[in-house]
TrEMBL record:
The keyword Transmembrane applies. It comes from the Bacteria. This is GlsB/YeaQ/YmgE family stress response membrane protein. Keywords: Cell membrane, Membrane, Transmembrane, Transmembrane helix. Its main location: membrane. It is a multi-pass membrane protein. It comes from Nakamurella flava. It is found in: Cell membrane. Belongs to the UPF0410 family. GO terms for cellular component: plasma membrane.
Length: 95
């Protein structure tokens, strides 16, 4: 049962971080809700890794901390910016 709660927490935090990142990044992103959750989850890992590199602390006190949510949003913004830059280059033009 512990794993189900962890997975649901990842999904909820991913949705929140991905949605806030989409609001903060200018321009239109053609992403579905599941893709927004994936961006948020990947952003959570990126934010956690950057937080560990900067502050040398991990999630030993729990990952549902305000600093963890903020780190998840910052990581999701970084991931979304990379996604929009890389995804924009793969567009196909029709004649």
């Amino acid at each position: 049962m512990h794993w189900i709660g962890l997975i649901i927490s990842f999904i909820v935090v991913g949705l929140i971080a991905g949605a806030v990142a989409r609001l903060l990044v200018p321009g239109k992103q053609n992403l579905s809700i599941p893709m927004t959750i994936v961006i948020g989850i990947i952003g959570s890992f990126v934010g956690g890794f950057l937080g560990y590199l900067l502050f040398h602390k991990d999630a030993a006190e729990g990952f549902l901390q305000p600093a963890g949510i903020i780190g998840s949003i910052i990581g999701a913004v970084i991931v979304l910016l990379i996604w929009t830059r890389v995804g924009g280059r793969r567009s196909v033009t029709h004649r």
